[in-house]
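Wed. Picked up where I left off yesterday with Peptidase A1 domain-containing protein. The coffee machine is broken again, so keeping this brief.
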Amino acid sequence: MTVIVNPPSLLHLVSTILLLSSLNLTLAQTTGFSVELIPGDSPKSPFYNPMETTSDRVTNALRRSFSSVGRFKSSFVLTEWAQSDITVGSGEYLMNISIGTPAFDTVAIVDTASDLIWTQCKPCSQCSQQVAPLFDPNQSSTYQLITCNASQCKNLFQTTCSSNNSCQYSINYPDDSYSNGDLAFDTITLATTTSPTVSVLEIVIGCGHNNGGPSKERNSGVIGLGGGELSLISQIGSPIAGKFSYCLLPTSEKNESSKLNFGSNAIVSGDGVVSTPLIKLSSPTFYFLNLEAISVGNKRINYTDVSFGKPGEGNIIIDLGTTLILFPSGIYWELESAVATQINATRVQGPEGLSLFYDAKTEFVIPNITMHFTGADVKLQRLNTFFMVLDTVTCFAFGSFRQHSVYGNLAQINFLIGYDIEKKTVSFKPTDCSKN
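Structure written out below (tokens, as returned):
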């Protein structure tokens, strides 16, 4: 049995971007469902490499964090609609989806800092050369409108185009990854964990027929959960009431999967829940929070970064696709000093990119670290603040990167984290995610 969901109208998007027929306006009643969220280095992942060592996975995670954060540059935020990082490695999460009718099964990276849903497709051949800019050229848009011959353009699913008009997209990423292809309407089906499958009709997806970069063999696609019009959250719309949540398992739980919840299943409530405003700035894609301070034991470090906007208006992005917690250098070094002062252990060398490592052969006590978001104090556990890079070496999970701040997924482990787009809040609840 399959539950069918028609997304709300994208008339503005259709008329100004796709120039295709309007969507079905019929909406299903608000519903809730959950899907499996697979860690990229789990044996359940099609990209799992049993030959990789812990050190290899850490190296991948560090590369992942420092390359992905480049997409948050203000110039990039203002000019790109569809953003994602297509390098698969430690620290990423995957989701199984089916596209088209009959359905074609595939797997893609889940990314809260992306909008576009895209997957690998075969090239669209012998298309018309009539090309026109989609937006004002002064906006430096990478999108172009192209007109194709429907009988000649076939995608991965061997079906002809449903319209003579299609929209071409082109995305370039800081780590030199890229995806180019055509936007189209199709049906996607999600395999839920406890209920019938859910199909979303007439959803806008990207068929990438020219993709590449550092991990070209692994760039199967992206499922964007960002705040823009093209994301899965926005396109499903009213049936899930703008709600989604997830509970990330510790990295040691390699044979288990986390859950990604939608609609009524995504409500975060009960004892211990704290909520903070969800702030939208220059880009509709990214989820900004406002961090007021960080406490290390009894020492409070006021957080004054305004690289994304004005004081109190959002200064850190919460991102499922970045591994580390990244701060501008000045704030990071003050934080590291406060942590190191309160730890009685032997410092050692570790992988390049981070600086605070300890010999883990002997157990030691770490100070309590609390993130003071506006209206929400989030007390981190040891697994959120330190992680093993070798069998005998543990590393501080915070890093320094230029001017921007990102709240990565290590800090989110064993928290049920809920996004409510309509109420504009993000909620945190300490949770044993293995039991959630």
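Quick read: The two ends are 25 Å apart (CA to CA).
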